[in-house]
Amino acid sequence: MRAPVHRFPYFVLLNNGDCGGSLIAPDIVLTAGHCLPERTLSRHYKHAVDLAWAQVGIIARDEADDDYYFDGPDSSEEDFVVLRAFRHPKYRRYGDDEFSYDYSIVQLNGTSTLQYVSILRDESLLNETTHPYLTAMGLGWTQPDRPSKANWLHYVDLAWVNNEVCEEASYGEESYHGRIDLSHLCTFEPGKDSCNYDSGSPIVLTLTTPTKDGSIDGDPSGLRDFLVAQVSWGRECADQHFPAVNARLSAVIDWIDDTVCEWSVDPPADFGCSSITTTPAASNATDSPASTIDGQPWNFSVYIVDSVYVLLILFILAVFGWHRKRKVHDYKILE
């Protein structure tokens, strides 16, 4: 179904249609791990050729030039450059199109004014009786046998499937046995599904129970979406025998919280960040070669208040010539 304008303001299109994502903070997008380049990021690979741009609140594209934008009077799309990105440390790719812990967090080079989506933190709300359906959205293929991207943002309601039931799916010699883990959430609906180029796109639970004044967090419609998962992989689009396998967010909520709190310039309250942050500014990014630990680049920053401690730290550094670096993948656009 075509999405109404402004229905999903948190939907993000990455790199002109390669992947989708979810705005979870004014400057943070959550997407699939396989949406990042597979190569090790270093100063020799400073910008994400495969992930350079983010379009927040995108709703449509111009079929003539394959460019994504909505040029109507109600347009609210906001475009950003990808500043840096973090792939989950347990991310794994099996074969061509099968993933585990398929998560990445992307920091934008500015803050969006559009409404972000909150992550569902109480999975008991996923109840087959009261909330059996989730909503997936995207700008990918709308028909598996016709390789053409959608001209307008579409959404579809899908039933979520218990992991134990999902793992039992089989047909002929093909089976999901041993391929479903805690990072997965399966969905299934006959003839309906996400498809190619929807990777990383949001899958949400919409709650419709209003508060006493008829709204939820100020939304006069009484509706509020909560992010539950994101599109990851599956055997085929809308396969009649196998559910789609998505990336379940509750499996990595601590990693999401920690990363958002460390890097967002304006983390929402539900992430529980400390009032004292040490988030580095965007201008702190550097082209210098990254030190590595276990193959990952590291940066380290020290924040000192008392001048005595400043002198002490400088003395230690002078004597031992020691420094380390904190994990970060820096994305920069080459001139």
From TrEMBL:
Residues 1-261 form the Peptidase S1 domain. Gene3D superfamilies: Trypsin-like serine proteases (2.40.10.10). The chain crosses the membrane at residues 300-322. Keywords: Disulfide bond, Membrane, Transmembrane, Transmembrane helix, Virulence. SUPFAM superfamilies: Trypsin-like serine proteases (SSF50494). Signal peptide: none annotated. It comes from the Eukaryota. PANTHER family: AT26814P-RELATED, POLYSERASE-RELATED. Belongs to the peptidase S1 family. This is Peptidase S1 domain-containing protein. It comes from Cyclostephanos tholiformis.
